[in-house]
Amino acid sequence: MSVPVAYQGNTSAAIADWLNKGDNAWQLTASTLVGLMSIPGLVVLYGGVVKKKWAVNSAFMALYAFAAVWICWVVWAYKMSFGEKLLPFWGRAGPALNQAYLIGRAALPATAHYRADGTLETAMIEPFFPMATVVYFQCVFAAITVILVAGSLLGRMSFMAWMLFVPLWLTFSYTVGAFSVWGGGFLFQWGVIDYCGGYVIHIPAGVAGFTAAYWVGPRNRKDRERFPPNNILFTLTGAGLLWMGWAGFNGGGPYAANVDASMAVLNTNICTAASLIVWTCLDVVFFKKPSVVGAVQAVITGLVCITPGAGVVQGWAALVMGVLAGSVPWYTMMILHKRSKLLQQVDDTLGVIHTHAVAGLLGGVLTGLFAEPTLCNLFLPVTNSQGAFYGGTAGGAQLGKQIAGALFVIGWNVVVTSIICVAIRFVVPLRMSEEKLAVGDDAVHGEEAYALWGDGELYDVTKHGEDDAEHGASAAVAPV
C-alpha cells in the first residue's frame, strides 16, 4: 500500500502536519452525539411513545434505517451530497471507501466568490481533520432524517415497504437537499442560511413523512382513536438523549471547536428551554393539565426551530425563537390540526409535520430575520449575510431567500416522496394487512416488547416457553 505524501516520514500514520487534534476530537464527539440521538434516542422514544402492540416494530424501523443509511452513504450517497456537481441540485454518485481519500484532509465548499469575468467560483474550506470524519458526521445526519420520516408512518407501514423506502428516499430526496444547501448546489451559491439542518433535515422529514402517510393510509380505526404511549419514561429518556445530543448536532456545524460552536450550543439550549416552558403553559391554560408528551413535543420543536440559525443569531433572538417554537407548532398541532380537513385526512402518527416541518420552516424564516452580521462572518458559508432585522436591502433579500429555499425543499419532497411510494406499491404493499394491524408486533415480528405472563393470563407454551412453565406455571393459571 502506498503512503500519502502527508504521512511519509511519520512513525505513526495517524499523524499529519495539518491535523488539528482538538478539532478532530470534537468533530468525532459531535458525530457520536448525533448518532446517539438515533441509536438509542429515537429507538427508545418511538418504542415508548406508541401503543404497546407497536413498540417493537416502531423501534425496529429506526434501527433498520440507521444501518441501511450507513451502507448507502458510503457506497454512493455521500458523494451525491458532497461530491462533484452533476446538476445544480445534485452531486455525482460514487463510493466513499477509498483509503487514501478518507485519510486525506477534508475539503468542502465554503462560500461563493465571483471571478473577474463574472463567472461563479466556489471557494473550498479545508477543515483540519480527515475526510473520514466528515463522512461520519454527515452520515449520522442523513440517518436521523430518514428515522424522523418514520415517525409519521408508525403503526401501519409494511416493514418490507420500509426496507425499500429508506434507500430510495435517501438517494432521491435527502441527497438533493444536502447538495443544494450544503454541498455547493444552487441554494448554497445563492446564500440560503441553514446552519445545521432546518432545510436539509427537518423540513424534508416533516413534509416527506406527511406525504408518505397519505400514500400508506391511516392506522386502523381502534389505533387511531386510542393510541396511548406504552412507556412515558422511555419517551422522556429518548427526548433527553435528543436534547443533549443536539450539542453535537448544532455544535458540529462549524467543523471546528471554535467560538461559533459555543454560541450554537448555548443558543440551542436557550431556545429549547423556552419552547418547553411556553408549550407547557399553553397546555395548562387551555387544557388544564401539563402534558408530559406535550413537553416532549416542545423539546423537539425548540431544537428544530433553532437549528437553521443556531450559530448566526444572538442569545436574545434564540429566546424569541424559543417562545415562538413553543407556541406556533402548539397552535398548528393542538388547534389548527383539529379544524383542518386536510390535516385530519392524513394520519401523521407523531405529528412530524408540526414538530419538524412547521418548526423547521419557522426557524428558517426567523433566521432570515435575526441572522446577525458579525456571527454570519464567523460561519463561512454565509459570510457577509445578515437578517432583515438588521436593515438594508441585503436583510430583506435574505428573508426572501429563506422563504424561496424552503419552497423548493417542500415541493421536491412532496413530488419525489409520492413517486417513491407509488413505485414501491408495485413491488410490495405499502400497508400491513388488516390481520397484522389488529395484532401488532407479535404478528409482524413474532416478538413483543413486554413478554410477561402471569398477571391473569392463561399460560401458553408457544408464547412463554417451557422453562418458564417449570419455574412457576401455577402463577399463570387464570381463575375459572
From TrEMBL:
GO molecular function: ammonium channel activity
Cellular localization per UniProt: Cell membrane; Membrane
Entry's family note: Belongs to the ammonia transporter channel (TC 1.A.11.2) family.
Lineage summary: Eukaryota, Viridiplantae, Streptophyta, Embryophyta, Tracheophyta
Main localization, broad class: membrane
UniProt keyword terms in alphabetical order: Ammonia transport, Membrane, Transmembrane, Transmembrane helix, Transport
Pfam families per UniProt: Ammonium_transp (PF00909)
Position of the signal peptide: none
Protein name: Ammonium transporter
InterPro entries associated with the record: Ammonium/urea_transptr, Ammonium_transpt, NH4_transpt_AmtB-like_dom, RhesusRHD
Residue stretches spanning the membrane: 25-47, 59-78, 134-154, 161-187, 199-217, 229-249, 261-285, 292-310, 316-337, 349-371, 403-428
One GO CC annotation: plasma membrane
Gene3D superfamilies in UniProt: Ammonium transporter AmtB like domains
Topology class, membrane: Multi-pass membrane protein
Domain Ammonium transporter AmtB-like: 25-450
Functional summary from the UniProt entry: Involved in ammonium transport.
PANTHER family: AMMONIUM TRANSPORTER 3 MEMBER 2, AMMONIUM TRANSPORTER MEP2
